């Protein structure tokens, strides 16, 4: 990794997770991202450990996870997604702008702190890419459940440099 | 405000809310909308009062809010979003088409009237922009919770005139 | 129907549902899809019978529906959406790529099998359109409720051939 963003990631002491270790017996008839012209449309990602396994703890934020654990799961989700982008685009300097983020929090009944949880994602992206590139249009919502009981799932759209 | 759409809003006796008064201590690392070519990608919006404060009542539609209160919250969400568009685009006549709407209703268990609730949003947009411009592709869904316990959140994509 | 994809659908013995029979008294201020250049943005669709009526059974996957019934509902949702595309585009061979799929499962508390449920949609699309065209960026999530208590709702974006 030698680009400016790759250097920034190294300076911050961050490590991008390996590709998702798909649990045995799970069929995934999808692509992690699709490129259409300058648009990059990214599948829903969750928190992963650096070896690509699904990160612990699993469950709903507000009961099984504390707010702080939810924020950390969202931060890890950002690194997971940047890892995918690095593998698929080859060079993260090709990214001009984070256009849109949809942040979904696996929410216990009554838990309404989706904004600070998804800020864990957004702030990690901004730390790496800077505010101009990293500040996206965004929605944060509380969902009833997520695959494998992951606490956070984020999908996004980005724009490449011309 | 002097364009055709601004005149229409005045004729209808509608008032666009001021920019969101962000509750104290809340970090919002995002933009309200992002423009890419002719595309306008709009963050999730909720119902606001005309002074920009988050509108009451808060909570889940089907228990804390009646269906009618949910519809009214969705209608107010439309005005909130048009207010953002007015501030960011300068002139609402730049809007050619509402392309996509994702309407999310903070839904009590068993509440399945997401269609009429989100119609409150769509019908207000159509009243202002007309059917050809205002009829978008749309999904309406029931979510487990929303930030600040707002009853409705809507995100959208629009297209600008050439 | 005479195009390659239409022939493929016939060979597979599949039948595309008629347009949605909107339940009495329901207002639908939206379009089933919107075209912008080569982009096709498709509204949320649910499972339909071939006559266009909303398919049974209704309810949450994990309690009112089994996993297998959820998968079948997602498969029917794919056929519903292809039916819409056939009517609106005239010729399904105009589709170059399925770009993005958002699959929403009406999920009972604790039900976390959204991946296999939405695979019912994706695998049906891939069976018809092939892997290169049909493998999309995707998110699968569990929502609290859906309109009319349908078990699955899917929205999508596609790209047309030049």
The CATH topology annotation of chain A reads as: 60s Ribosomal Protein L30, Chain: A
Estimate the strand proportion of chain A: 15-25%
Biggest interface, CB < 8 A:
A-B, 32 and 25 residues
Helix content of chain A: 25-40%
Task: Supply the CATH architecture of chain A.
Answer: 2-Layer Sandwich
- Whole-number average pLDDT of chain A? 97
Pattern of helices and strands of chain A: HEEHEHHEE
Query: Largest sheet of chain A at a glance?
Result: 5 strands, mixed
CATH class of chain A: Alpha Beta
Count every helix of chain A, treating DSSP H or I runs of 4 or more residues as helices: 4
Oligomeric state of this protein: homotrimer
Low-confidence runs of chain A:
none
Shape of chain A: globular
Radius of gyration of chain A: 15 Å
* Total discrete domains of chain A: 1
CATH H-level name of chain A... which superfamily? RutC-like
In spatial order, strands of the major sheet of chain A run 1-2-5-3-4
Count the E strands of chain A.
5
Q: What does it look like?
A:
The structure is a homotrimer of 162-residue chains. In chain A, 55% of the residues are buried. In chain A, strands 1-2-5-3-4 form a 5-stranded mixed beta sheet. Chain A has 162 residues and is of the alpha+beta class. The longest helix of chain A is centred in the middle third of the chain and has 23 residues, at 67-89. The model of chain A has no long low-confidence stretch (mean pLDDT 97). Chain A is globular. Chain A has helices at residues 4-11, 67-89, 114-129, 131-134, and strands at 33-36, 39-45, 95-106, 137-143, 152-160. Chains A and B meet through β3, α3 and β4 of A and β1 and β2 of B.
